Amino acid sequence: MTLISFVVPAFRVQGYLRECLDSLLGQPYRDIEVIGVDDASPDACGDILDEYAARDPRVRAVRLPHNVGLGPARNIGLDRATGEYVWFLDGDDRLAPDCLPEVADRLTATRPDVLLVDHVRVHWDEHATRSALPEVFPDPPGAATFRLAERPETLRLLHTAWNRLVRREFLTGLGLRFAPGWYEDVAFSYPVLLAAGRIGVLDRVCVHYRQRRAGAITRTLDDRHFEVFDQWHRVFAFLDGRPDLAGLRPVVFERMIWHYLTVLGNGDRIAPALRPAFFRRITADHRRFRPPGGYPVPDGGDGLKHRLVAAGRWHTFSALRAVSQARETTRLTGRRARPVARRTARLARDALLHEYYRAELRRPIDPTLAVYAAYWYRGYACNPAAVHAAARRLAPQVRGVWIVRRDRVDTLPPGTEYVVAGTRDAQRALARARWLVNNVNFPDFVRKRPGQVHVQTHHGTPVKVMGLDQQRYPLGAVGMDFAGLLRRVDRWDYSITSNAFSTQMWDRAYPADYVRLEVGYPRNDRLVTATAEEVRAVRAGLGIAPDERVVLYAPTHREHLPGYRPPFDPYRLLDVLGPAGRLLMRSHYFHDREGRVRRRAEGRVVDVSDVGTVEDLYLAADVLVTDYSSAMFDYAVLDRPIVIYAPDHDAYRLARGVYFDVTAEPPGAVALTFDELREVFRSDAVTGASAERARRAFRERFCGWDDGHAAERVVRRVFLGESG
Questions:
Q1: How far apart are CA 647 and CA 502, in angstroms?
Q2: Helix, strand, coil proportions of the chain in percent (round to 5)?
Q3: Which of 596, 598, 603 is nearest to 577 (CA)?
C-alpha cells in the first residue's frame, strides 16, 4: 500500500499549481500518490494536472464537470485515495524541501491516527512567519502520541486540513466528510482531533502556506463569511453524538468564540454594514452552545471581548475596536514617515515636471488618445508596435502617440506621432491619454486616473523567474523595489499573454486584479503572415544571399553576472557550418544601454544588435541558437530549427531561477558545451528526428494562439470594446 495519498484540489491557482506539484514529486521519497482534482477551474489548472499525470505515474488527474467547492472536491479526491494516510494540500501551497522522509519515518514508527506538522506562512514579499506550534508546545511532545483530552492545548493549532495527515481507515471509519461552503476545514479538523486515539506532532516545517496578495478568501469582502457559523454548528453536532467527549466541550467552545472574533476582527472579510449582524450571531451561538459549567475565558482584552459577546453589547465592542485601530494607525504612521521622506527626496529633481503632470491630471481625459511605449522608451518595437499598427487600421478614430527617448527619435517609422520622454509634452500625454500601452511598466509617478486603461503587453514568454518570484533569487533581484513593482502592477487593466503557460506564471509573478487577454503575442502576427517574398526581401536587405544558411545567435542577459558573455567562438562555429554558413549575432537589448554594441560585419559574421526590428532577423534566419531567452518562443512560430546552448545551465538555474528546464523540455537540440554545440551542427542533429519531435511538442505547448490575428483581438477588445 502507498504510504501517503496527497489530495490537491485546484481552482483558480494556475500560477501556483506547478510549484505545488513539483514540491511533492521532487521529494526524496517516492512512496506517494497525488490526486489532483480540477474543480472545473476556469483557468488552466485542469491542463496542468493532465500534463503532470501524463509524465508521472504517481499523479492522477480528476476533472469535475462543474464547480463543487473546496470541501466536496477534497471528498472526491479522498474517495480515490489508496494510501495509508491522506494529506490534503491546497494547490497554491507547497511542501518544504526534503521533509517527506522525516514524515514517513514518524508515520511508520508511531502509526498515529493524526500526525500534525508545522508550517510557515510565506507572504507575497517572501518573508515568512512561524506558526503557533512553538507557543502551543513549548516542549514538543517528541515521538509520543496522545489523546486530545491529555493535551487539549492542541486545539490552539491552526484548524486547517493541510497541516495534518490522517490515517485513511480511521477517517473513513468516522464517516467524516468535508462540508460544502467556506470554512470547510472547521467541521473536519476539530472532529478529527476529538475522535483520534493517537495524535502525533512533528516539530518540522513541512508546509509553506502561501499568503496570496490577491484572490484569497481570507482577504475577500463577502457575506459568505457567515457560513462559518454553519461549520461550527456541525462541530457541536458531532460532539452531541459523542457523549464520551463531553469533557472537551469547554475548550472547543472557547475555540469557536475565538474563531468568530477573528473573522469579525478582520477588516478584509466582513463589510461594516454587516458587522452588527455578525456580532449578534456570535452572541446567539454563545448562548446556545455555552457549556453548563462554563469555559476557560481568556485574560485581558480577549477576555473582555468574550464578556461583551456574552452580554450582546455590540456598541461597546465596536467603540473599543475603533480605539484600538486608531492606536495602530498612529503607530504605523510614525513608522512610515521616514520612507515617505526618502521617497520625496528622490523625486525632488523631477519636481517641476511632476507638478506639471499633476496639473494635467485635473484636465479632462482625451477620449481619442492612446499612448504607446516599449522597452523604457527605446523606440517603436515589440507588441505595442503591432497593436499600434492594427489600431491605425481597425480604429482610425484612436490617435496613437509614442513616447521615445530623444536619442531614439530617428528610429521611428516615418509618419509616427511621438513625444520625447521627460518633456512637458510627454507628461501631458501620460496624464490625459485614454489608453496607455507598454511592454514594461510606466514610471512610478504615473497615476491611474479614473477612465484610463492600462495595457501591459509584456515582451516575452518567461523562462527565468520574474516579478515577485525574483525575491527567492537575490542575485537576480539586485536593486528591485518589490512594493513599488506591485503598485505599478495594480495599474494594469489588461495583461496580454502569448500562451497558457505565460498566464500561469504572470498570475504568480504579478498578482493583481487585471483581465487576462489570452490572445497570443501581437508582435508574432508578422511571423505567421510573412510570405516567401517578404522573407527574400528581408534577407536581401541584410545582405544575405539566397543560398546562405543563416544561424542567428541571440543569448539572454545575465543580470546576476554583469558583463558575462557565454563562451562562444563564432569562427569555430563557422568551421562546421560550411562555406554557405552565415552567422548573425545579436546581444540582449539591455546591452545597448551600456553603449557597447556597434554593428559590424566581418566576413560571414555579422553583429546585428542594432537592427531595430528583431522579427526581421527571425525571418532571415534558418536556425536560432539561444539559451534562456524568450526569443525561442517567438521563433518557434516559424517552425524552424532551434538549438539550446546553455553552458551555465546549472549555475543559471540556481542563481537566477527558471520556471521550467529548457534542457529537459527543449524546442530542439541541446548543447551544454561549445564543443557539443559544434557537434550538433556537424552531425546535423539540428534537423534530426529527435529535434523535430521536440520542436513539435514545444510549438503545441507555446505557440497555439499565434495565428496572425493577436493584434486585431487586442484592438477589438481594448479600443473597440468588443467581447469574445
A1: 25
A2: 45, 15, 35
A3: 603
**CA–CA dist 710, 714 (Å, integer):** 6
The DSSP secondary structure of 531-560, one letter per residue, reads -HHHHHHHHHHTT--TT-EEEEE-----TT
At 462, give phi and psi (nearest 5°). Answer: -80, 125
Q: How far is CA 182 from the centre of its chain?
A: 23
- Backbone torsion region of residue 567, taken as left when φ is above 0, otherwise alpha when ψ lies between -120 and 50, otherwise beta: beta
Element (H, E) at 692: helix 689-702
Tell me whether residue 30 is exposed, middle or buried, using C-beta atoms within 10 angstroms of its C-beta: 0 to 12, 13 to 18, 19 or more.
exposed
Q: How many residues in the chain?
A: 724
Contacts of 488 by beta carbon, 8 Å cutoff, 6+ apart:
441, 442, 444
d(CA 502, CA 164): 33
CA dist list (Å): 704 to 87, 278, 529, 632:
36, 49, 15, 14
Taking alpha carbons only, the member of 374, 381, 371 closest to residue 430 is 371
Residue range 81-136, pLDDT digits in tens:
999 999 999 999 999 999 999 999 999 999 999 999 999 988 776 778 888 888 89
C-alpha to C-alpha distances, 81 to 56, 61, 111, 172, nearest whole angstrom: 16, 12, 18, 11
Output the nine-digit C-alpha cell for 381. 518595437
Instruction: Report the relative pairing of strands 199-211 and 114-123 from DSSP bridges.
Output: parallel
Check if the beta carbon of residue 373 is closer than 8 Å to that of residue 441. no
pLDDT at residue 265, rounded to an integer: 85
What single-letter DSSP state applies at residue 658?
B
Distance (Å, whole) CA 174 – CA 152: 20
What pLDDT sits at residue 596?
36
Rounded to the nearest 5 degrees, what angle is found at the Cα of 446, between the Cα atoms of 445 and 452?
Answer: 165
The confidence score (pLDDT) of residue 479 equals 73
Read off the C-alpha cell for 52.
503532470
Residues of the chain with pLDDT under 70: 125, 214-219, 322-350, 475-476, 478, 559-560, 562-563, 588-602, 724
Determine the residue type at 675: D
**What span, in angstroms and rounded, lies between the C-alpha atoms of 416 and 388?**
10
Residues 302 and 94: their CA atoms lie apart, in Å, by 33
pLDDT at 592: 42
Contacts 24+ apart (CB under 8 A), 392-398: 394/712, 394/715, 394/716, 394/719, 394/720, 395/715, 395/719, 395/720, 397/368, 398/368, 398/369, 398/370, 398/435, 398/719
pLDDT, one tens digit per residue, over 497-525 is: 999 999 999 999 999 999 999 999 999 99
Q: Where are the beta strands (DSSP E) in 168-286?
A: 199-211
Give the whole-angstrom CA distance, residue 23 versus residue 608. 42
Look up residue 85 and give its three cell numbers.
494516510
Radius of gyration of the chain (CA): 30
- Give the C-alpha separation, 73 to 686, whole Å: 46
* Helix residue spans in 422-499 (DSSP H): 424-432, 482-489
Residues near 120 by Cβ (< 8 Å), separated by ≥ 6? 128, 129, 130, 131, 205, 207, 208, 209
* Grid cell in block for residue 609: 544588435
**Number of H helices and number of E strands within the chain?**
26, 23
Maximum separation of any 2 CA atoms in the chain, in Å: 96
Q: Which residue has the cell 481594448?
A: 718
- Give how far Cα 44 sits from Cα of 10, 22, 48, 50, 481, Å: 10, 16, 6, 10, 30
